[in-house]
Amino acid sequence: MVDWASLSIYFLNIEIRKQEDTVAQLQTGAEAPAFSLIDQDGNTVNLSEFGGKKLLLYFYPKADTPGCTTQACSIRDETANLSGLGIAAVGISPDQPEKLKKFRDKYDLNFPLLSDPQHKTADAYGTWGKKSMYGKEYEGIIRSSFLLDEQGKVIQAWYKVSPKDTVPFAKQALE
Q1: Is 68 a catalytic residue?
Q2: Which residues of the chain have pLDDT under 50?
């Protein structure tokens, strides 16, 4: 005979685990969470410093890896076009400032890279979560980008964005 109470508890526990695994994502119109992080040069950078301009804020897993390099270089190459649209760019990763500086210098990146080693900002933006590679689960940055308006509200959010799509999606959001 089936123990329906035990079976119900079993499925309820599965549902609770699924909900815990789900990262809260920012929606269009939401207030972007404030941050204060150290950049590649050791300077403190706050979200409030970008007030009055649009901001392309993107989270990437690890500096100087193929996908992250593709993403950063595409933003570097489009900086003039983004500036023409009134958009500044900032990248955030869990890397230490020294590693970010090497990455920025190696690829001549022309925008700030911010260090979030405790992933508090990534948590606030819903970009830190469970990932899997080759069947192994781990926690890390979910590559994401956000276009924020001049008042710090989310115009558009892209979770699990492809590195090559960050800039085109941002430009398309303003059309």
Answers
A1: yes
A2: 4-21
